[in-house]
Amino acid sequence: MAIAFQIGATDGEARATTLTTRRGMIETPVFMPVGTAGTVKGIRFEELESPELDARIMLGNTYHLWLRPGIETIRACGGLHKFIGWERAMLTDSGGFQVWSLGALRKITEEGTEFRSHLDGSLRFLSPEISMEVQTVLGAEIAMAFDECAPGEATVDEARRSMELTLRWAQRSKEAFERLHAAVLPNDSGEERELPSARPLPLTALPAEAGKQSMRGTLSQRQSLFGIIQGAGHLDLRRESLERTAEIGFDGYAIGGLSVGEEKHVMMDVIEEIAPRMPAEKPRYLMGVGTPEDLIEAVARGVDMFDCVLPTRNGRNGQAFTSRGKLNIKNARYAWDQNPLDESCGCSVCRRHTRAFIRHLYQSGEMLASMLLTHHNLAFFLDTMKRVRQAIRSGQFAEFRREFTEQLHCGLE
Amino acid sequence: MAIAFQIGATDGEARATTLTTRRGMIETPVFMPVGTAGTVKGIRFEELESPELDARIMLGNTYHLWLRPGIETIRACGGLHKFIGWERAMLTDSGGFQVWSLGALRKITEEGTEFRSHLDGSLRFLSPEISMEVQTVLGAEIAMAFDECAPGEATVDEARRSMELTLRWAQRSKEAFERLHAAVLPNDSGEERELPSARPLPLTALPAEAGKQSMRGTLSQRQSLFGIIQGAGHLDLRRESLERTAEIGFDGYAIGGLSVGEEKHVMMDVIEEIAPRMPAEKPRYLMGVGTPEDLIEAVARGVDMFDCVLPTRNGRNGQAFTSRGKLNIKNARYAWDQNPLDESCGCSVCRRHTRAFIRHLYQSGEMLASMLLTHHNLAFFLDTMKRVRQAIRSGQFAEFRREFTEQLHCGLE
Question: Residues 19 to 58 of B: which have CB under 8 A from any A CB?
Answer without folding.
Answer: 37-39, 41-46
